Amino acid sequence: MIDLRRVRELFDARLPGYSLPQEFYTDPEIFEFDLEAVHARSWIFVGLEAEIPSAGSYLATTIGRSPIIVVRDRDGTLRGFYNTCRHRGAQICETGHGCKPVLVCPYHQWSYRLDGSLQGTPRMHESFDPAGIHLLPIHVETVAGTVYVCLADEPPPFEKFRNEVEPLLAPSRLIDAKLVYEKTVVERANWKLAMENASECYHCAVGHPSLTASAYPLATRRDLDRWNMACDEFTSRMTAAGVPSGQVDGDWFTAFRFPLKEGCVSLTMDGKPSVRKLFTENIGWMRWSLHSSAYAHALCDYTATFSAIPIGVQETAITWKIYVHKDAQEGVDYTLDSLTSLWDKTNFEDRDLAEMNQRGVNGKGYLPGPYSQEAESYALNFVDWYCAQVGAHLDSQTKKAGSTSRSVMA
Prior knowledge:
Elements: H1 4-12, H2 23-26, H3 28-39, E1 44-48, E2 57-63, E3 66-72, E4 78-82, E5 96-99, E6 103-104, E7 111-112, E8 118-120, E9 137-143, E10 146-150, H4 159-169, E11 177-187, H5 191-198, H6 204-207, H7 221-241, E12 246-249, E13 253-258, E14 285-290, E15 294-298, E16 303-312, E17 315-325, H8 336-362, H9 377-409
Antiparallel strand pairs: 1-10, 2-3, 2-5, 3-4, 4-9, 6-7, 7-8, 9-10, 11-17, 12-13, 13-14, 14-15, 15-16, 16-17
Helix pairs in contact: 1-9, 5-8, 5-9
């Protein structure tokens, strides 16, 4: 059982503007707390609608320790469930993608319709009552072709995210995408270090030389001045073209469309499109992120998405997916090598950086350090958001414990 008083003491010790106390990156008890306080209560990006195109198609993944599945019902509705059989709890569908007219548990062949209702229970006794037995649902929402789930009974409000991100994302036409590449690696680092690393580009000039071939490195004041001028010109051009740009922020998300380096139209090794069949003309770089676990990039020729799902106190599964236009043909419009080389290189660089960070944090020499207010503002926003989730969950658990205590005394 998690010692909430200890978590509260550690939480209260965090200095505003500084990284977290060591235990938040290293302690198994804090990891267990995170699974419940954050990942079980946040909106989690799981993929694109294009991955679940027709009735019976599904996407199965795991959030924390909970296998989940998103399936398209026969009426076209996307439905989400815990991917756990109501018989003896076996995982029903293997992690990944598939298509089935009925969801059948491979253990004892209990079966479920696409709406989660129970269909078959072979060899159950006559007195068995199937009433009320169905797959347990989870919340599912979609925005401009992207799919999100939440495990909480009462999820955080979603409408602000939809209303503000959908206009930015719509020009990327992700409803016309197809998945062509997926890879998962395990970083030996706490999930918060992985997300902090993904939230800032303070390290990009040195850490990602290939990425900064087409993206502004923002390593010096001179870079920043050039960036501000480019943003002003880009915003004017997008406004004239009727394309939304700029930045929107919510409690748990950030999204913005911004320019690439002059002469570059995509985020590639040379700034040129890696896919001949485009989603749209050059409309810059659209990036959106969910503080809990995801960040994504939509360009004119492809979209790359990333999820960071904790699997251990110092283990995070990083999955990246790359999508192209549904009509693009491999070997004709693109090659996987040219499409994936930049992100494969960048993601392994990020893995090495996060693991290096974890090794230092593990040592006796670690003390929380100050974030750069200018260069690490998004990392600081992430940590501040995390602390807000921690505080809210501690308060709710304290209130619940107080109510239980009063009930027992009565």
